[in-house]
Design goal:
GO molecular function, one term: DNA binding
Helix content: 40-55%
Keywords: DNA recombination
Largest sheet: 2 strands, antiparallel
Shape: elongated
Strand order of the largest sheet: 1-2
InterPro entries: DNA_brk_join_enz (IPR011010), Integrase-like_cat_sf (IPR013762), Integrase_catalytic (IPR002104)
GO biological process, one term: DNA integration
Organism: bioreactor metagenome
Length: 138
């Protein structure tokens, strides 16, 4: 990975759509700068292989007592979270690295129970208002 104007570029994606620029929370950027200040542009961000990163991640979760989620599960959650928060699919597709929204809708759009409960509340409120307070059956 290499830094270019506050952006990290990863080489080698499956498709051209996989090449994308993602923003990171601003509070993380100084930490990344500090961790990479002595690295050349050719060095990887962590100096670790993907399997070493996964192993370190799993150890961290195990030692902290946090529920273990693999990276693929986190990707599913990220996509679902964007959709549940009304991020337009055009932007979610770009962030996920897909060419079209077909893959996003077919594979990653999970119903989050909290959002489903909100939808139920909206429907119930509408129907209660539409049919008034009279609960008797006719």
């Amino acid at each position: 990975m290499q830094s270019e104007n506050k952006e990290w570029v990863t080489k080698g994606t499956k498709t051209n759509s996989g090449k994308r620029t993602l923003s990171i929370p601003e509070y993380i950027y100084p930490t990344i700068l500090d961790a990479t200040k002595d690295k050349s542009k050719e060095d990887s961000l962590t100096g670790m292989t993907p399997s070493a990163i996964s192993s370190a991640y799993n150890r961290l979760l195990e030692n902290s007592g946090v529920t273990r989620y693999n990276f693929h599960s986190l990707r599913h959650y990220y996509a679902s979270m964007m959709l549940a928060n009304n991020v337009p699919s055009k932007y979610a597709v770009r962030r996920m690295g897909h060419a079209t929204d077909d893959m996003l809708k077919r594979v990653y759009q999970h119903i989050m129970s909290e959002k489903d409960n909100e939808v139920t509340d909206v429907i119930n409120e509408y129907l209660n208002n539409a049919f008034g307070g009279d609960k008797s059956y006719r």
